[in-house]
Structure formats: C-alpha cells, structure tokens
Amino acid sequence: SRRSSVAAASPPNPAPMIRGGIYHAVLQTTFEQLRGRLTEAQLPNARSIALGALREACAAERLAGRDQEHAALVRELETDVLRYLAFAASSGTVFRPAHFELSFGTSRDDVAPVTLGGELRLSGRIDRVDLSPDGRAAIVIDYKGKSGVAARRKWMDGRTLQVGLYALALRELLPDVRVAGALYQPINGNDLRPRGYLQKGDDEDRGDIV
C-alpha cells in the first residue's frame, strides 16, 4: 500500500551534501591561500594546499560508516579536487577568485534579501565570485554536480535559473562591480567546462566555456 511504502522509505542520504560542503571548503581554502588567479606555475602549490585542507576536512567529517567506504569517498573527493584544479589552471582566465560563500537574505547573515523588481525578493548563497584584474568586473560561479549543469540556452526551459538570478543579485550586493558573466561550474565528471554566459570583451583569452 502507499502507506506502507512511505513508512518503509529510507531517509535521504546526507553523504552527497557533506561531500559538496567539503569540496566547497577545500576550494575556498586553496584559492584564499593562493591570493590570486590559479596558473600552471601555481598548480603544485595549489595541489599541496588542497590536499592538506582535504585531509583536515575528512578527518573531522565522517563520509561513511565503514572505514573502507569512507576511504573510497575520500579518494574520490581527492581525484575530483585535483582534476578541477588542473582544469582551472589551464583555462586561460585572467579573473581571480575573490569572494566565497557570499550569503544574503538568510537567517545566518545580516544582509537583507535582494529585490529583483516588483515584489520578487531573493535570498541565497553565491558559491564564488571571480574579479577581473582591475576589480571592476565579476563572474558569478555556481558549483554543480555534472547532472545539475545547464547551458545558458536551456536555463528557461529547464528552470535552471539559479546562477542567472545570482548575477542579478550581485549587482545589488556589489554595486561598484559590473557583472560580466555567470557560470555553472561542474565539480565532477569528465567534462569540467563551465556552462553559462560571458560578455564579449571580457576574459577573451579563456577557451573553456561552453
């Protein structure tokens, strides 16, 4: 019966959310300690920082009940982080990660929700904001698993509007900065190319965006 099937349903698995939180934290630590954009020359240093941060995070957070399963998930995280860092170092971008976990309108911060025309009020947390060398232009970055990434032309049909709305919100959160683009950045899978948009004339030498 429906009642019995509902009663027997398993609770949601917290592991993917925990892994996502660790991934975000490790990348934030890595980029903050680099204090600039990631290049091929900085990649060894970035890898060292990331692995240290990952070991610390995984020692504090249990990913699975069994030791072997926990170790396997840690190795998977390590592979994903190192693969992304290598990809990012070769992207050719001149923008640098500058703001992380930029939260607004939630119960955990003092920033009010952003009004986006009429009575639409938006709250959320922007994973990352990259700034141009002069600090006047920004690209919104939203980390996603490979199944949650959508090209800009599919945003409306697929209702994957999050990063686009964050781009609108950023104009209010950082009023002195021009929003040059908004990208969904895969954090795993074989194709790490970000999906979204970038204004013509901004970050022209990068060749990684779909």
Entry keywords:
single chain; 210 residues; alpha+beta; five-stranded mixed β-sheet; disordered N terminus
- Strand residue content: 15-25%
Query: Helicity, in percent?
Result: 25-40%
Strand order, sheet with most strands: 1-4-5-6-7
Which runs of at least 5 residues are low in confidence (pLDDT < 50)? 1-8
Sketch the major β-sheet: 5 strands, mixed
Number of strands: 7
Mean pLDDT: 86
Q: Structural class, from helix and strand content?
A: alpha+beta
Through-space gap between termini: 46 Å
**What is the CA-atom radius of gyration, in angstroms?**
18 Å
The helix count comes to 6
User: SSE order in H/E notation?
Assistant: HHHHEEEEEHHEE
The multimeric state of the shown protein is: single chain
Shape: globular
Description:
The chain has helices at residues 2-7, 15-34, 43-60, 67-89, 155-158, 162-173; strands at 96-104, 114-115, 121-122, 124-131, 137-144, 178-186, 195-198. The chain is α+β, with helices and mostly antiparallel strands and 210 residues long. A five-stranded mixed β-sheet has the order 1-4-5-6-7. β6 (178-186) and β7 form a beta hairpin. The protein is globular and about 50 Å long. Residues 1-8 have low confidence and may be disordered.
